[in-house]
Write a structure and sequence with these properties.
One of its GO terms (biological process) is oxaloacetate metabolic process. With about 350 residues, this protein is α/β, with parallel strands linked by helices. Helix content is about 40%, strand content about 15%. It folds into two domains: about 260 residues, Alpha-Beta Barrel (TIM Barrel), CATH 3.20.20.60; about 60 residues, no CATH class. The strands form three sheets. An eight-stranded parallel beta sheet has the order 9-6-5-4-3-2-1-10. The chain has a two-stranded antiparallel sheet with strand order 7-8. The longest helix has 20 residues. The model has no long low-confidence stretch (mean pLDDT about 95). The structure holds ligand LIB3CWND and magnesium ion. The site of magnesium ion has 6 residues, from helix 7.
């Protein structure tokens, strides 16, 4: 076991010291692009300032014979594009049991380490996977002369990873956050779904049958059905693990690109449960995430009203017929801090909130 005293010591001589706090930068959407796809790659410069996070994906969705092209493409994009102050550059490397990941990490950290904010690691099974990446990143940072520590983001997409989620969240000061990977997790759990995220019409609760005049339930009569959220338990547990360790939880992909309504619902459920962002797979999902993961003007106005009515943050007051106290004050402060952080990057939001 590592001593708590050593937790913030670099894991290689010459590597930058680990971050003591996770940088709280707006990350409402992690926008995936395939760096080996010339059309997508060409769009990256125009997405700077539009997406909070641009992620060069090297793993699933990139076929085996394009793995090297994707890696080299990402290096070129990172060298050519100025990502500015408000857009982060992330990558998703190949899985730790794949033949590509060692070259992914070696190439990316030594060639573009100073431009990479976060490395997303898929199919993380336990804290041992994070320890491996942590040490390797430190060695490569030292070798490449990288000046600030690259953060690590784990994807929760195996039953074992799920069982170890708290240990994964706390495995290293590099841990920036965790995303739900619903497609791989469903397969690993042997769930009987075939989708990439979202709900399922078969996962439902049905209203009780009404009784006829004879008191006998009418099993064949009209009954409302309520579709349930397949991901509630998983997201809630991931959110708790992240909150416990001061890192950020994210919903992952929503594969039905055309169903922008259900995508917005899925993202909003995650936002309300505590997630700070979601993945966008197609440009159309960027605006959905931006809308959902930014607090509404009404919520910001209400949060301000509560804060102003309780300057000490304590006591109990009535606002619009509802009791507000220390606990609702704290929730309001979560909304206000997020609004402030987003406003610093987004003048339109700043104006909206100022006028709220
Ligand atoms: C889903 C897509 C395959 C759809 O692509 P396409 O059919 O080309 O869509 P459009 O015709 O509507 O595209 C219009 C133009 O926009 C460009 N485009 C599309 N997607 C992107 C993008 N992500 N970034 C930038 N530009 C994009 C197209 O090239 C078109 O350009 P033009 O012709 O010049 O107008 C495609 O969107 C896609 O491949 N998306 C990414 C998929 C991905 O990354 N998947 C992996 C993440 S999900 C996952 O791994 C599962 C998870 O791990 C889990 O286990 O749950
Ligand atoms: Mg996956």
């Amino acid at each position: 076991m590592r001593s708590a005293k050593d937790f913030f010591a670099p894991l290689a001589v010459g590597a930058p010291a680990p971050a003591r706090e996770v940088p709280a930068r707006p990350s409402r959407m992690i926008h995936f692009f395939d760096p080996s796809n010339p059309k997508m790659a060409a769009k990256v410069p125009d997405m700077v300032g539009v997406a909070d996070v641009l992620l060069g994906n090297l793993e699933d969705a990139v076929v085996a014979d394009k793995k090297e092209a994707a890696r080299e493409g990402l290096v070129q994009i990172a060298k050519d594009v100025d990502f500015g102050e408000h857009t982060q550059l992330w990558t998703r490397v190949n899985a730790l049991d794949s033949p590509w990941v060692l070259d992914d990490l070696t190439t990316l950290v030594t060639e573009i380490g100073d431009k990479l904010d976060v490395v997303m690691v898929p199919k993380v099974q336990g804290p041992e996977d994070i320890h491996y990446v942590d040490r390797l990143l430190a060695q490569l940072e030292a070798k490449g002369g990288v000046q600030r520590p690259i953060m690590v983001h784990a994807i929760l997409e195996t039953a074992r990873g799920m069982a170890n989620v708290e240990a994964i969240a706390g495995a290293s000061p590099r841990m920036q956050g965790i995303s739900l990977g619903p497609a791989d997790l469903a397969a690993d759990r042997r769930m009987k779904t075939t989708r990439v995220g979202g709900g399922h019409p078969g996962y439902l609760v049905r209203q009780d049958p009404t009784k006829g005049a004879d008191g006998i339930p009418d099993y064949q009569g009209q009954r409302t059905i309520f579709q349930q959220d397949l991901w509630h338990y998983t997201i809630a547990r991931m959110v708790d693990a992240c909150a416990m360790h001061g890192i950020f939880p994210f919903y992952g992909p929503f594969g039905d690109i055309k169903d922008v309504v259900a995508c917005e619902d899925q993202f909003r459920n995650a936002f309300l449960l505590g997630c700070v962002g979601a993945w966008s797979l197609h440009p159309v999902q960027i605006d959905i995430a931006k809308k959902v993961f930014s607090p509404s003007a009404e919520d910001v106005a209400h949060a301000r009203e509560v804060r102003d009515a309780m300057p000490s943050g304590g006591g109990a007051v009535m606002i619009d017929g509802k009791m507000e106290d220390d606990a609702s004050y704290k929730q309001c402060m979560v909304i206000l801090e997020l609004a402030e952080r987003l406003s610093a990057n987004d003048p339109e939001l700043a104006k909206l909130y100022a006028e709220a």
